[in-house]
Amino acid sequence: MLKTQYTLSLEAGTDEAGRGCLAGPVTAAAVILPKKNNLPLLNDSKKLTEKQRYALRPEIEKQALAYAVAHVYQEEIDEINILNASIKAMHLALKQLSLIPEFIVVDGNRFKQFEDIPHACVVKGDGKYQNIAAASVLAKTYRDDYMKKLDTEFPQYNWNKNKGYPTKKHREAIATFGTTVHHRISFQLLSKKEDI
């Protein structure tokens, strides 16, 4: 069972999705859940099915005291690198919250101070704390929606299924059709064998 909070203060959990993708934005969410909530299925988004994630999203949004989602797009990822882009997306989501958190819990081990709010980094935090897990579900589903929309313009890359991740079919499509404006040019888009 996931813990409700890391501390006893008004706490935002934050997480990102799409860090390892070859195309599209990195997307982050920030969520402040009430200490008492009814989200029994809530877990790290990677441990849930797509159907479970989409069923949970409206429940999280209904029960959250505040939530926000933000994208940082591929041009900026190429410019500032994926780590800085991931942290920037988290900061943008936190900035959009309708409540100011007293504490921030971050999934992973890297973060930059946000305003003057204390924070803690928790490795695999999305499997430990509800507010981080909630953020992971929102980040993943909103990013998936974005990639599905792009898939209607660029069906040859199969983004509807792979969401921009480096699958064999995605790399084969890049080798055949080249890149789009949505690809991250600073990433190794082809495997070394296909590159030759």
- Counting helices, strands and paired strands, the structural category is alpha/beta
Which percent range fits the helix content? 25-40%
Shape: globular
- Total domain count: 1
Number of helices: 7
- CATH architecture title: 2-Layer Sandwich
Which topology does CATH recognise?
Nucleotidyltransferase, domain 5
Q: List unreliable stretches of 5+ residues.
A: none
- CATH hierarchy class name: Alpha Beta
What is the string of SSEs from the N terminus onward?
A: EEHEHHEEHHHH
Give me the CATH superfamily: Ribonuclease H-like superfamily/Ribonuclease H
Order of strands, widest sheet: 3-2-1-4-5
Give the termini separation: 49 Å
Main sheet overview: 5 strands, mixed
Overall mean confidence score, pLDDT: 94
Gyration radius from CA atoms, angstroms = 17 Å
Protein described:
With 196 residues, the chain is α/β, with parallel strands linked by helices. The chain has a single domain (11-195), classed as Nucleotidyltransferase, domain 5 (2-Layer Sandwich). The chain has helices at 50-63, 74-80, 82-96, 130-153, 159-162, 168-177, 192-195; strands at 11-17, 26-32, 66-72, 103-107, 119-122. The chain has a 5-stranded mixed sheet with strand order 3-2-1-4-5, sandwiched between helices. A hairpin with an 8-residue loop joins strand 1 and strand 2 (26-32). The longest helix has 24 residues, at 130-153.
